[in-house]
Amino acid sequence: GAYIDGLLRARGGVTDDSGTLGLGGSGSITNLTLTSNTTATFAGDVALTGGSLSISGDGSNAVTFTESGNGDFTIDAPDDIRLDAGGGDLVLKAAGTEFGRISKSSNDLSITSSVTNSDILLMPNGTGNVGIGTTAPGAKLTVSEAGNGNIALFTNTTDADLNINLTSGVT
């Protein structure tokens, strides 16, 4: 084979006799950068070990995908992360088994459990509260309606009774 010190530029691709691209010797890719208006198509499995994958449309503001080494997967983005599912559902699985979905139902957001007789839990950390229709819940569960304020406040007293305080006019 031919060896070139420095920068190699090629049109149409660079491969070995088996059709693979290797950088860094022994057929392993140690650093691959695609720039400008290039497109890369990979067939089969693509594996990254000991690092992360960064994607940037403008050379900065990269989105980085990292696997921790123990199975945790992190997406780090400098702005919002948007998931646009063509099928309409974001399916949640553990060990290959579906346990829930986040989906669009008509114009509504639907959070559903996929497991029969299971619960959907909202569990604030510490002394936090849950609000429906409010960004500032004042009780463990605050239900509000635009223009009418709080409809119901659900609180738990020290004697473990559940108190439901309804706004006047609500039954």
Written as H for each helix and E for each strand, in order along the chain, the element string is EEEEEEEEEE
Put simply, the count of helices is: 0
Q: Which strand-content bin applies to the residues? A: 25-35%
- How are the strands ordered across the major sheet? 7-8-9-10
Count the strands?
10
Radius of gyration equals 26 Å
Q: Which blocks of ≥5 consecutive residues have pLDDT under 50? A: none
Share in helix: under 10%
Helix vs. strand class: mainly beta
Distance between the termini: 84 Å
Query: Shape, please?
Result: elongated
Mean pLDDT: 74
Task: Characterize the biggest β-sheet.
Answer: 4 strands, mixed
Topology:
Blueprint: E1 52-55, E2 63-67, E3 73-76, E4 89-94, E5 97-105, E6 108-113, E7 130-132, E8 141-145, E9 149-156, E10 162-166
Parallel strand pairs: 7-8
Antiparallel strand pairs: 1-2, 2-3, 4-5, 5-6, 8-9, 9-10
Characterise the protein shown here.
This protein is mainly beta and 171 residues long. The strands form three sheets. It has a four-stranded mixed β-sheet, with no helix packed on it. Strands 1-2-3 form a three-stranded antiparallel β-sheet, with no helix packed on it. Strands 4-5-6 form a three-stranded antiparallel β-sheet, with no helix packed on it. The N and C termini lie far apart (84 Å).
Quick overview of this protein structure:
This protein is mainly β. It has strands spanning 52-55, 63-67, 73-76, 89-94, 97-105, 108-113, 130-132, 141-145, 149-156, 162-166.
